[in-house]
Design a protein that fits this description.
Blueprint (H helix, E strand, L loop, with lengths): L2 H26 L3 E3 L1 E6 L6 E6 L8 H15 L4 E2 L7 E9 L3 E4 L6 E8 L2 E8 L10 E14 L5 E11 L5 H12 L14 E3 L2 H7 L6
Parallel strand pairs: 3-4, 3-5
Antiparallel strand pairs: 1-11, 2-10, 5-9, 6-9, 7-8, 9-10
Length: 218
């Protein structure tokens, strides 16, 4: 083989190796889900539990049953044991709520309106525009979403631990896909303090999607 042919073969091999490395790098990079979380409390000795809605009107809601089932799976895999409400040592309350949409980035010169959401112990209030004098303005809105998980001793009603998870949505139709990610984010904080606000993240890998039945929400 002549020197020129050897040179071109080596150059081609180098290019192919670079392309292969780039493909592997890209395939190995997955999106990650992020949210914010605060937790308090301690791990109980007796871990039998039953799940109840924070808002009693949601008791027979298909939506609540769907999210409660996911929560139970995470509790069971974390050493907790589901039991009858008459014998369980813990009552674990699940609550979630949605705030009013608010502008993420925008400037306005006209009147505004204030609206809020009362949910459990949370009162969320936002101010948003009801009009604008510049028709060319583009407005981006966010919808706050909250998940609250609290554990109480069944006999004494004393609090044991609590977790509050927060995220922001672009549209209401994302809620069903986002909730499993938020509940999974809480899993590592059952019965322990986060020592302030944390930002857990979950990689959107095939393993996680299959193991936890996740669907990328964005």
């Amino acid at each position: 083989m002549v020197p020129n042919q050897i040179y071109h073969m080596k150059r081609l091999s180098g290019i192919l190796l670079c392309i292969s490395a780039s493909v592997l790098l890209l395939s190995g990079c997955a999106n990650s889900y992020y949210c914010t979380l605060n937790s308090r409390g301690v791990s109980p000795i007796e871990k039998t539990y039953y799940v109840a809605p924070q808002d009693s009107s949601m008791r027979y809601s298909l939506e609540f049953e769907e999210y409660a089932t996911i929560l139970k799976e995470h509790l069971n895999s974390s050493g907790y044991e589901e039991a009858n409400y008459k014998t369980a040592a813990l009552r674990i309350e699940l609550g979630y709520g949605r705030g009013d949409a608010y502008p993420e980035t925008a400037s306005y010169e006209t009147m505004s309106n204030t609206s809020g959401l009362n949910y459990g112990n949370y009162n969320v209030t936002y101010t948003f525009p009801i009009g604008t004098s510049q028709g060319s303005n583009t407005h981006t809105y966010k919808i706050p979403l909250y998940v609250v998980i609290r554990a109480f001793e069944t006999l004494t009603n004393d609090p044991v631990w609590e977790i509050v998870v927060e995220d922001e949505l672009d549209r209401e139709t994302q809620i069903q896909n986002v909730m499993p990610w938020m509940l999974l984010s809480a899993k590592d904080y059952f019965g322990r303090s986060s020592n302030g606000e944390q930002t857990p993240h979950i990689s959107d890998t095939r393993k996680n999607r299959e193991m936890y039945q996740l669907v990328w929400p964005y």
